[in-house]
Amino acid sequence: MEPISIVGTPKTPTVHFDNEKGKVEIKGRSIPENSIEFYKPLVDWLEAYLSNPAQLTEVNIQLEYFNTSSSKCILDVFKKLEAIYKSGNEVIVNWHYEEDDEDMLEAGEDYQSIIKIPFKMVEITE
Amino acid sequence: MTFNLQEWLTKHSKDDILFLFKGEVSSTLIADSLEVIEAKLEEASPKSKKKIYNVLVEALQNLYHHSSVLPEVKDINEKGKYAICILSKNNIGYHVITGNFVTNKQKDFLTKHLSHINELDKEELKGLYKDILDNQEFSDKGGGGLGMVDIARKSGSKLDFNFYNYSDNYYFFSLNVNIVE
Question: Is A96 left (phi over 0), alpha (psi -120 to 50) or beta?
Fold first, then answer.
């Protein structure tokens, strides 16, 4: 399988998925009207990655904004990662949020309470 | 009494207007509006800025996905998915005000959904958000009214809404969201 590398736009995030290195990164803004269109290839990639994942998958989510249309797709991404974790592989999620952005911290905690994989809340200081 | 759009607009244009749009909402319009609005929010505190931006994204996308097209247009300007979006400011804080046309069926759903949201406290809203997120099917149009729950959570205010009868089966849906500075 091939890594995914997508350059961010004002409405969609920068994405780096690397199966060799076990890196999954989503950064920037995720506010498209149709999130399913954007996230489906990412969820499909993780589904394929599930059959042969790296020993440790390190996930970095660093979103400035995301809409509710994206929130379900992000949950789908986490559910694939949870499947990788449940099949006996190491997965760590680093949920980055800007200093004082309580809403983004809370959003991370919402996912943390639904998804049974280790989450680390990482505050970004200027 | 028939609904007068101009009167509604005048009534909601009293404060300091930072942004006002009326017309058909498209994907490009949302992108362009958000860029303009972001520049206008430079003076808001970083915390308020994010909240206002988030509320506006959801509000504009609600208008984009759920505005109904009027079958008989009284005024040529109200064609297509006609909607209004206002961002204003006064001494209390910022206000995101939207207006769009909905069907009777949408009015029933919104009345039930928004009244329910307004009865919930912070923790209950969090619970409802997670429940919809994890348990309901989503479509390309979004899902299960999650946007309104998010607007209520981010703004921390009750949703102030009204329906005005426009014509048979059509209502003008007005929503006012306050973000206290």
Answer: beta
Domain with residues B5-180, CATH architecture? 2-Layer Sandwich (3.30)
Facing A65 at nearest CB: one of B27, B30, B54: B54
**What's the burial of B2, exposed, middle or buried (CB within 10 Å: 0-12/13-18/19+)?**
exposed
**Cα Rg for chain A, rounded, in angstroms?**
14
The answer to whether B50 contacts A65, with C-beta atoms less than 8 Å apart, is yes
Angle at A40 (CA atoms; ends B57, A52), nearest 5 degrees: 135
Residues of A in contact with B49 (CB under 8 A): none
Phi-psi region of B103 (alpha: psi -120 to 50; beta: other; left: phi over 0): beta
Residue A76 tokens read as 């789908």
Instruction: Mark yes or no for CB contact A34/B46 under 8 Å.
Output: no
pTM: 0.94
Q: Which residues contact B159 (CB under 8 A, 6 or more apart)?
A: B114, B117, B118, B148, B151, B152, B175, B176, B177
Pairwise CB contact (< 8 Å): A75 & B133: yes
Q: What is the pLDDT of residue B140?
A: 59
What is the side-by-side order of every strand in the sheet holding B93-103?
B16-24, B82-89, B93-103, B170-180, B160-167
What are the average pLDDT values for consecutive 10-residue runs of chain B, which has 181 residues?
A: 86 92 92 94 90 96 91 75 93 95 95 97 96 79 82 96 92 96 82
> Is A31 part of the contact surface with chain B (CB cutoff 8 Å)?
yes
